[in-house]
Design goal:
By secondary structure, this protein is α+β, with helices and mostly antiparallel strands. It has five helices and four strands. Helix content is about 65%, strand content about 10%. The chain has a four-stranded mixed β-sheet with strand order 1-4-3-2. Helix 1 crosses helix 3. The longest helix is centred in the middle third of the chain and has 55 residues.
């Protein structure tokens, strides 16, 4: 279970990485307002040129965002379901093949030819079944990851727009990050995670 969990988290983080190549810049104009997502937003950290910069630890975000956690569970259940279906089809084919070996001699020549043609067709199907199921699982994962990314990006854009805080928000991960050091004072991960979870909680109530 731990390996499956790590694999799906890795896939989610990989897709998130693609969506956050290097950095993404959030630039807005207009008077600042009090955020409905977070009434006590972190004060922006001033850098050279007057830019305000923050970062989000995406490893932590994926581990604590309830939508990501629920999505992970659903993907694991879907994967188990597809694999079980594949095993069932394979077992059924093996049983039918063994039954034909035992009882095929009792069939007419025409029946034998028809049965052998059927078994051959099913054998060819079995040879590609694993690849088809894997592709189906990956397609589902990519679709769910896209929904996850859209939810995160949309929230961050709205959060930043309402708070009028940051010109640049960086991505930080344990395994692959474009930065060697980030001042902890720039970390807004908890704010983003709390806001995302509150939003998700409210959506589930509807």
């Amino acid at each position: 279970m731990e390996n499956k969990t790590s694999k799906i988290l890795l896939i989610c983080n990989a897709v998130l990485l693609l969506g956050l190549i290097g950095i993404y810049v959030l630039h807005f104009t207009g008077a600042g307002t009090k955020s409905k997502h977070n009434a006590e937003a972190t004060a922006p950290l001033q850098k050279e040129g007057g830019l305000t910069i923050a970062y989000v630890n995406t490893d932590t975000l994926l581990a604590k965002y309830q939508y990501a956690i629920d999505m992970e569970k659903e993907l694991l259940a879907y994967k188990d379901q597809q694999e079980a279906m594949g095993r069932k089809q394979m077992e059924q084919f093996q049983n039918d093949y063994q039954d034909y070996l035992k009882n095929g001699a009792n069939l007419t020549l025409t029946q034998q030819q028809n049965k052998e043609a059927e078994l051959k067709q099913r054998a060819e199907r079995m040879s590609t079944l694993e690849q088809e199921l894997t592709a189906k699982i990956m397609e589902r994962q990519m679709a769910e990851n896209t929904k996850l990314l859209n939810a995160i990006f949309a929230f961050i854009r709205e959060y930043n727009n309402e708070n009028q805080q940051f010109d640049i928000i960086l991505r930080k991960t344990f395994n692959d990050s474009p930065t060697l050091y980030l001042n902890p004072a720039m970390d807004i991960t908890d704010e983003i995670v709390n806001g995302l979870n509150e939003e998700y909680k409210n959506l589930k109530k509807d």
